[in-house]
Amino acid sequence: MSRTNRSVTFKKRNDDRLPERLTKAAALLLLLFNAGKIDQAGKVLKVRRQGGYCAADAWLALVVWLQSCPQAGIKTFWNETLARCNQQVAAIVGRKRLPSPAALSRILKSMEVGLLRPIALWLLTVVPAVDALLAHPATQTYDTRGQGWHVFDLDPTVTTLRQRSLPAGEDLPEPMRRADDFAAPGYAGRKRGDVQIKRMTVQHAGSGVWVHGHISPGNGEGMPDFVAALTSVAELCDRVGIERSCAIMRMDGEFGTVPWFSACRDLSLPFITRLNRPKYFEDPEFLACLRAASWFSVPDSGSGPKRVAAELGRWTVRPGTKTRRADGTLYEPIEVRVIACALPKTGKAGRGRVLDGFQVELFSVDLPAEAWPACEAAALYFGRAAEENRFAQEDREFGLDRVASYNLAGQELVTLTGLMLWNLQLVEGFNLETPPMTPPPQAARSAAVAIEMPAAWPRDPLVQRVLAELPWPDLLSSRENWAWSAEEEALLCPDHRPLALTSVRTIWADAERTGVALRRPTHGCDGCPIRAACMPKQRATTTKMIELSVPSEMAARLQKRLSKIRAVDTVAQKRRVKPPRAGGSAIVVAPLLPARARQVLNSALRALEITVRVILGEEPAPLPHLISAGAADRQCRRRTWEERWLSNQLPEGSSVDIRVGGSDDCRALLSREQTCAQTMLAMT
Questions:
Q1: Residues 62-84 pLDDT 10s
Q2: What angle do CA 528, 531, 532 make, to 5 degrees?
Q3: Hey, how many other C-beta atoms are within 10 angstroms of the C-beta on 543?
Q4: How many other CB atoms sit within 10 Å of the CB of residue 84?
């Protein structure tokens, strides 16, 4: 049996060493401090309070919490981790201490939307310094002509709240819900809840950078929310040097009508979104355009449904009769380019409308057809599904789907802080392994695969609706093995082949009955095993036709619709939309991998050790309690924003010794020139 000797020695715990849970947050705070962002935040982040901590101190506490342990509540995180090293973490950025959970709650409750939203873009993009990342060729999507585009995903998300029972009675205190001024009822989609808040977010798809975020109760404020998001994109483009005409707003069908199109045009931002015009599916001219269109396969990943797309040309979209601008004026009609996508579908449509076995979806594409043909434009739109993964990631990593404050502005500050941390991780990971400043190579564009849709597709839905109302059991009582199929919405012959309505005519003098004719298309009876017994003429081109006597009122509706269909079909064939001549390059989606950039930063900060030793300078001797410090103190004046920020600064003469142990990447990340003479950093 082997013998082993074990020696155990003890040493005093190093109280200057930060817990492992806090090291990444401390490193990011040091990065922001070195870049001078902490002092800037002290000047721009504002909250109206008579005393105590300022808004920037609350923001710093949120940075530490969200980066370290968002899964735990603020109070739990404070008690278990931050309380014993509060002074050390605060000293990294030149502060005496960070707010306790109670103080942080009071600050968040005092936040105001009017003071926070003007600096939201600064917080999301200037603090993490995203400009160089957005300007990199790897964050752009390239069209068939080789031009780079910046794609912005505008997609609101909803957080729902379930309200507990709150009975009222004379023996009970006055009922009060904390969410009354915070959330409101609204459309929650697939989520379940009594009240909700709606977060309007915009993300740069190519880089993964969040560029806008704000919260509204219930369904939000509609157009004001939308314009605020577009304005953030426009201001960012102007600052970074991106042409607005090269910034694509990619949006859901919620924004598929004239008011939203007008808002994008007003700010010179191109867009691609679903066209929310269901009446088009019953418009004879539009259906004729579908029948005359050229259909091509849509590029896909191979894992989803196979779609086809067609160019439908430019259509004038008119606003609703009750649609008005904020000043009460009418919206002008807008001419937009329309494309259609179709995929085989039975049953009810998830999107769009099912027409004769195909689910058809319509899209407004405010992009040049030569650069973005219909099939490539459709692929661009469906690429927005990737943002759902990013929503899941930010919820998993920063817990932004939870309520941290029942004050709307306070919750908004928490959300903006989490999104800012996401952007900061992206930028720092990108800076550690910056790709070459060369556009990605584009292969030659392969010829699009043409798809033949069924003949006479799609049938007119109004005609089919009237046919379905006919008394088929009575009409077919003398025709053995003939049947009306509700599933196929067609009259089937004994060989189960459908017949289509071709004409309406009077066959008797009786005004109450009119004849309608249905027939198979040319060569539609080829190969039929009962052909010889079914029809008297045996010519090869002869097809089956039957006449039925139907109520004249229904026949008149069919005749009116058939006449309209034939008129527009002739026009549609003459002005058939030909696919434009596209560029010779294949579409290249932005090749940057944002998740991998954040992984690079996490790898650099792995096994990080930080010790912080603080030596405070001497505070000025306080005046006697009954003696005023001057006129401002005697008159109880409000302190200036700067005075409130300076009140929590480390006193003069303080020194902070920060020692960091980590990898070479960590050294490169944190050994940048210091902007504060009080801080000393030693790499070990």
A1: 999 999 988 889 999 999 999 99
A2: 145
A3: 19
A4: 12
User: Considering only the top CATH level, what class is 123-162+182-323+330-432?
Assistant: alpha beta
Q: Would you put residue 175 in left (φ > 0), alpha (ψ -120 to 50) or beta? A: beta
587 has pLDDT over 80 = yes
Instruction: Name the residue among 78, 68, 71, 72 with its Cα closest to residue 104.
Output: 78
Residue 213: name the closest of 202, 222, 197 by CA.
202
CB distance 216 to 183 below 8 Å = no
Residue spans per domain, the chain: 20-110+606-683, 123-162+182-323+330-432, 461-560
Q: Are 200 and 216 in contact (CB under 8 A)?
A: yes
Residue 462 structure tokens: 């109004």
What does each C-alpha distance from 682 to 32, 344, 611 come to in angstroms? 17, 65, 10
* pLDDT bucket at 534, cuts 50 / 70 / 90: confident
C-alpha 53: how far from chain center = 35
Give the C-alpha separation, 37 to 130, whole Å.
Answer: 13
pLDDT of residue 117: 95
The span from the CA of 195 to the CA of 406, in Å, is 13
pTM higher than 0.85: yes
Joined together, the tokens standing for residue 588 give 């290249």
Angle (CA) 251-255-259 rounded to 5° is: 135
- 3-state DSSP call for residue 286? helix
Is the bond leading into 473 cis (omega within 30 degrees of zero)?
no
Task: Decide: 619 and 653 in contact? Cβ < 8 Å.
Answer: no
pLDDT tens digits for 102-153? 999 999 999 999 999 999 999 999 999 999 999 999 999 999 999 999 999 9
CB 447 within 8 A of CB 373: no
Using alpha carbons, select from 157, 161, 168 the residue that is nearest to residue 182. 161
User: Measured between alpha carbons, how far is residue 501 from residues 144, 505, 515 in Å?
Assistant: 43, 12, 11
Which residues sit opposite 628 in a β-bridge? none
Of 470, 478, 544, 549, the closest CA to residue 507 belongs to 549
Q: Is the pLDDT of residue 556 over 70?
A: yes
Q: Could you read off the pLDDT of 202-219 as tens digits, one per residue? A: 999 999 999 999 999 999
Residues in Cβ contact with 457 at an 8 Å cutoff, skipping those fewer than 6 apart = 290, 291, 355, 356, 358
> Do residues 543 and 523 make contact, with C-beta atoms less than 8 angstroms apart?
yes
Please state the length of the chain: 684
pLDDT band at 630 (very low <50, low <70, confident <90, very high): confident
Burial class (CB in 10 A: 0-12, 13-18, 19+), 542: middle
**Locus of tokens 């009080």:** 678
